[in-house]
Amino acid sequence: MIYTKKNLKISTWNINGYISKGFNKFEDDIFVDNLLQQDIFCLQETHCDLDNCLELPNFQRPVHLIRPRTKPSGKRHGGLSVYILNTIRLGVKFLEHATNDFIWLKLDRTFFGFQEDLYICFVYNPPENSSYYRKLNYNILEMIENDIVKYSQSGKIMIAGDLNARTACEIDHIQMDSDKHIPLFDNYKCDSSLIQRKSKDSSINTRGRQLLSLCISSSLRILNGRTMGDLMGAHTCFQPLGSSVVDYFLASEELLPNFTYFHTHNFLPDFSDHCQISCMLKCNTKIYERNLNLALMPDKYIWDDSIKIKFMTKIQLIMPQKI
């Protein structure tokens, strides 16, 4: 069967460990159903080994980034798992990654009907006060920015994940940008005038200012709080000390008209203190899907003499000269 797919559903979710108080989230139907609605999704902070990662028949060959166990507890922390729907897997390529904190995917423009290739980075940026982050000898956002410089030469960019950055309603672009009065580089593109982004989180932190700086320098825009489906900037994280917006989708400014919606899903405290976030991106791709309904086939065939006669009669009608 062949059909045309017009939209891609992409999501990311910090699940805060696949096990919670002895409860395996991967075995819960509601948890799994939330993921099966997507075409591409990333789970963050999975805390799992390769032998207990989530397995889904329609999402074969996922990629798992797993941190070494911590000492002396021997526990797993962090971890990313990225799943691609089987029917679109041929159009997606996983790129080399330098750390287990983020990973890049390349979506082929010809396969998906884009004007340019699309590079998606799924990332988990740990809190600045975490022991893991304090031991790092690199800055995750700076590494991602270096990759953006490279990949933006041949395509558009998306960033998605838990960035542990609080940006309030601060501007993520240059306001009233213009090249009319000051000579600029020939390849300089002025930022567009965008609707004011909203957020229910009024706080901003150091990581948030770094993220805003990345948006401005790389012409990326935050989907939260300015895209249909989340025009108020809903909270994405709920903890005892308060709620915040720390999970984001960012995209190249030119891509914004191609998003049908951005959605912050309902808070499900049994699964995580973070909400799943998702977006829908326009595409135009032909999907070739085998639809063999084997359930309708009999378990075995019963042969008798009457069937033998019918069989020979059919053969004679088709190839009488050879019978």
TrEMBL record:
Q: Does the keyword Hydrolase apply?
A: yes
Q: Which residues form the Endonuclease/exonuclease/phosphatase domain?
A: 12-274
Indicate the annotated site residue(s) for Interaction with DNA substrate: H274
Q: Which UniProt keywords apply?
A: Hydrolase, Magnesium, Manganese, Metal-binding
Cofactors needed by this protein, per the record, are: Mg(2+); Mn(2+)
Quote the catalytic residue positions: Y124, D162, H274
Which SUPFAM superfamilies did the record assign? DNase I-like (SSF56219)
Query: What does the note accompanying the cofactor annotation read?
Result: Probably binds two magnesium or manganese ions per subunit.
What single Pfam family name could you report for this chain, choosing any that match? Exo_endo_phos
One CC-aspect GO term: nucleus
| One MF term in the entry's GO annotations | metal ion binding
Which terms does the UniProt entry file under GO BP? base-excision repair
- Domain of life, per UniProt, equals Eukaryota
Instruction: Write down the chemical reaction(s) this protein catalyses.
Output: Exonucleolytic cleavage in the 3'- to 5'-direction to yield nucleoside 5'-phosphates
Locate the site labelled Important for catalytic activity: D247
Belongs to which family? Belongs to the DNA repair enzymes AP/ExoA family.
Q: What is this protein called?
A: exodeoxyribonuclease III
- UniProt source species: Mytilus edulis
**Organism taxonomic ancestry:** Eukaryota, Metazoa, Spiralia, Lophotrochozoa, Mollusca
